[in-house]
Amino acid sequence: MRLDLNVSLSAGAPVVGVGGEVDLSTADDLYEFLATVIRQRGPRLTLDLRRVTFMDSRGATAVLRARHMARSLGGNLTLIGPSAPAALVLRAVLPDQDLAPPGQTAVALPCRHPHPLR
Q: Among 8, 51, 74, 77, whose CB has the most other CB atoms within 10 angstroms?
């Protein structure tokens, strides 16, 4: 399955919608897309993971790298309740309080790492 990425605006800030599989073959594409949005639209963005059908550790790393980039530029990456497959892998790398259940409103992802994860 391919990765489906789109950008919309909410209250003037970008919302990146992600659908499909975020894995070894697509994680770099996700990170590059998020990095481009951050560079072009500013470091405050929302990531909507409700349509993700699969995510592995590379996908989680892409999200964490984008979060670090946004935070290093004075912004923030906010999640809209991830799908069950995305939440499963993100819970392995983020504390429970950083994730909203599917259907819940956005949750900010605080930066706890002084350097990007690779």
A: 77
Report the candidate in 86, 97, 18 with the shortest Cα–Cα distance to residue 58. 86
Six-digit token string for 80: 């809209």
- Total count of residues recorded for the chain: 118
pLDDT on residue 118? 31
- What separation in angstroms does the CA of 112 have from each of 6, 25, 99? 27, 27, 15
| Residue range(s) defining the domain that contains residue 42 | 4-108
Q: What is the CATH number of the domain that holds 67?
A: 3.30.750.24
- Using a cut of 0.85, tell me whether the model's pTM lies above it: no
63 belongs to a structural domain: yes
